[in-house]
Amino acid sequence: MPGMNGYELAKEIRATPAFKDLFSAAMTGFGQPADREKAIQAGFDDHVVKPADFPVIEGLLRGRSR
């Protein structure tokens, strides 16, 4: 994304009252515990490492829908 990364976007989304309850997951190639923590701290609800199988993504969405 030009001008912004996913972490910055997540922070902006969480700061917007209309979207404060929106479920979001970071999908990234970085899979270390510190990467997951960075995603959660930025405002993502979860962290998925690429490549992710469809059942993993489906389970994430089904289990976390609000």
Explain the overall architecture.
The protein is an alpha+beta fold and 66 residues long. The chain has three helices and two strands, in the order αβαβα. The protein has one domain: Rossmann fold (3-Layer(aba) Sandwich), CATH 3.40.50.2300. 47% of the residues lie in helices and 12% in strands. The chain has a two-stranded parallel ribbon with strand order 1-2. Strand 1 (25-28), helix 2 and strand 2 (46-49) form a beta-alpha-beta unit. This is CheY-like chemotaxis protein. Pfam families: Response_reg.
CATH class term: Alpha Beta
Query: Main sheet, how many strands, which sense, barrel?
Result: 2 strands, parallel
The number of distinct β-strands equals 2
CATH architecture group name: 3-Layer(aba) Sandwich
The DSSP helix count reads 3
Structural class: alpha+beta
Our estimate of the beta-strand percent is 5-15%
The CA-CA distance between the termini, in Å, is 27 Å
> What percentage of residues falls in helices of 4 or more residues?
40-55%
Taken from the alpha-carbon principal axes, the silhouette is globular
**CATH superfamily membership, which one?**
Response regulator
Q: How many discrete structural domains?
A: 1
Pfam families: Response_reg
Domain Response regulatory: 1-65
InterPro entries: CheY-like_superfamily, Sig_transdc_resp-reg_receiver
Protein name: CheY-like chemotaxis protein
